[in-house]
Write a structure and sequence with these properties.
Layout: H1 38-42, E1 46-50, E2 53-57, E3 64-66, H2 69-77, E4 84-88, H3 99-102, E5 107-109, H4 115-120, E6 125-128, H5 142-147, E7 152-154, H6 169-183, H7 187-205, E8 216-224, E9 227-230, H8 236-244, E10 247-248, H9 262-268, E11 272-277, H10 288-297, H11 305-308, E12 312-316, H12 326-339
Parallel strand pairs: 3-4, 3-6, 4-5, 6-7, 8-10, 8-11, 11-12
Antiparallel strand pairs: 1-2, 8-9
């Protein structure tokens, strides 16, 4: 979810980029021995398409910078911490299984990275889950970075061209793992991660045939300036809902995270409300407890059966966005359906 205060303007002029081009082997490079075997250096370049940009890598990147937590955790899940020159834009605690590896990676900015900070890190690749982190007033556009000789990768889930081929957001997420595995020459790790995620998807899909009726759900991510932001059509919450046989109540809104009114949520009268917890982000209304209090105090929402009967599932807010952790929330949602009696 990318609701945030207006970013600080970052000056782009006059900044130079020093790219690192050292090669490496099939596994993560050791800081003490970054030189690749001759076979890796002589291999054919890896070519990957990323949201309209054709990327080519003669050697695996050695100094990747990530622009958001989801990208950071994806690279950590692939065991690439030794290749990371820096991370940024942390919304909540890094997942427990990645914390040790995360501790070895420089945090360039706990919030949005600036152009100056990116260039000072001298990266040879930038990775982001979201296209809107590549703008003139943030790290620079992808075209600007390309002119500097710096390739940039955007998650296939957020690429405008990615949604027209019948693939689900989960399909596109798994494609990211495949692409990154090829770029870094860790295809075996990517294949292992894909297999683990497919197993989680299959377990959740088993629920679909046992769901009773046609329950509807509202996914409440954030409350910003008193207004709720919910999941619309096309994002991960819609994919999770469809996978387990539940209808997202705002699937008619063609936007990932539309701003709506409490009255409109009440009018749709969902059977279930999923609340995202972002308590560690620290903004007003971010915690699950605050959102729950709002539901019970807001005049129209307090009358809903879902609120009165506490038909509410709480999940980590960051896991509503595409990441290696999304399958965890998918499992929490499926478990919630069972506990609330929607699965026979």
């Amino acid at each position: 979810m990318r609701i945030s205060p207006k970013p600080r303007t970052a000056a782009l002029a006059g900044l130079l980029l020093a790219l690192t081009t050292a090669g490496c082997g099939a596994g993560p490079a050791s800081p003490a021995s970054p030189t690749a075997p001759a076979s890796a250096a002589s291999a054919a370049p890896v070519k990957v398409e990323s949201c309209g940009h054709d990327l080519s890598f003669a050697r695996p990147p050695q100094r990747v910078v990530t622009l958001d937590q989801s990208s950071t955790e994806t690279l950590l899940a692939l065991g690439l911490q030794d290749r990371m020159a820096g991370t940024s834009n942390l919304k909540t605690k890094v997942a427990a299984q990645y914390q040790s590896a995360y501790g070895t990676v420089p945090v360039l900015n706990p919030k949005l990275l600036t152009a100056e900070q990116l260039r000072a890190a001298t990266p040879d690749l930038v990775v982001s889950s979201f296209t809107d982190l590549y703008t003139k007033d943030r790290v620079g556009t992808r075209e600007e970075l390309r002119r500097l000789g710096l390739p940039s990768y955007v998650s296939a889930v957020d690429c405008p061209e990615g949604g027209g081929s019948g693939r689900t957001p989960f399909d596109l997420l798994l494609r990211d793992y495949e692409n990154l595995g090829r770029i870094f020459r860790v295809e075996d790790r990517a294949a292992k991660l894909i297999a683990e995620q497919r197993q989680a998807l299959d377990r959740a899909a088993d629920v679909r045939s046992s769901v009773t009726g046609e329950p509807t759900v509202v996914w409440l991510y954030s409350v910003y300036a008193g207004l709720p932001y919910v999941a619309g059509n096309g994002g991960m919450p819609s994919a999770m809902s469809e996978l387990v046989g539940v209808r997202n109540a705002f699937d008619d809104v063609d936007e990932d995270w539309p701003e709506v009114s409490w009255e409109e949520i009440a009018r749709r009268d969902p059977d279930i409300i999923v609340i995202g917890d972002l308590s560690e982000r620290g903004a007003a209304g971010d915690s699950a407890a605050e959102k729950l209090a709002m539901l019970r105090e807001e005049p129209t929402m307090s009358k809903l059966t879902a609120v009165k009967e506490n038909r509410i599932v709480q999940v980590p807010g960051i896991e509503m966005d595409p990441s290696v952790r999304t399958v965890n929330t998918l499992g929490l949602f499926a478990d919630g359906l069972r506990k609330l009696g929607h699965v026979r």
